[in-house]
Amino acid sequence: MLYEELGGHATVERLVQCFYDRVYEDDVLRPLFPPDRTHVEHAQIKFLTQLTGGPKQYDSYDPRLNLAMIHRLLPIQHTHALRWIELMTLTIKETVPDPYARDRLTERLQIGAANVLRICEAHQSE
How far apart are CA 12 and CA 82, in angstroms? Predict the structure, then answer.
C-alpha cells in the first residue's frame, strides 16, 4: 500500500508541514490560503492519508470534503495549479525516501490538481 511505502503517518505529517512552510512563503499561493494554517494542514494530512490507502480518516462520506466542493469557490487559475504541484513535487522529493512511492504520489496529486483546476475554471465561467 502506498501509505506504508511513503513511510506512514510520520512521513505524511512531515510532508504536509514542509509543504505548507513553502506555501505560506510563496507569493503565488499564499493569497489563496487562510491566515491560520492549522485547519489546512490537518485536512491535507487526512486527504493524503485517504488518497494513499492509509487508515480511514472519515466515519462516513461527507460531500463537503470532496475536492471539488472545497476548492470550487477559490479563484484558482492555471498558474496556481502549476505552482502548487511544483512545490508539492519538490517537497515530496525531500521528504519521501522511496523513489517509486514518490513517483506514484506525485502522479496522483498531478491528476488531482488538474481536476481541481478544471472544476474551478468551470465554476468561474458560470
Answer: 21
Counting Cα atoms < 13 Å in the Cβ hemisphere of 59 gives 0
Which backbone phi and psi does 114 adopt, to 5 degrees?
Answer: -65, -40
Residues 6+ apart with CB under 8 A from 99: none
List CB contacts of 49: < 8 A, sequence separation 6 or more: 3, 9, 12, 55, 57
23 by Cβ neighbours in 10 Å (0-12 / 13-18 / 19+) ranks as: buried
Give pLDDT tens digits for 31-78: 999 999 999 999 899 889 988 999 976 555 555 556 666 766 666 788
pLDDT on residue 65: 57
> 0.90 exceeded by the pTM?
no
- Determine the Cα–Cα distance for residues 18 and 21; give it in Å rounded to an integer: 5
Distance CA 115, CA 67 (A): 9
DSSP state of 59: S
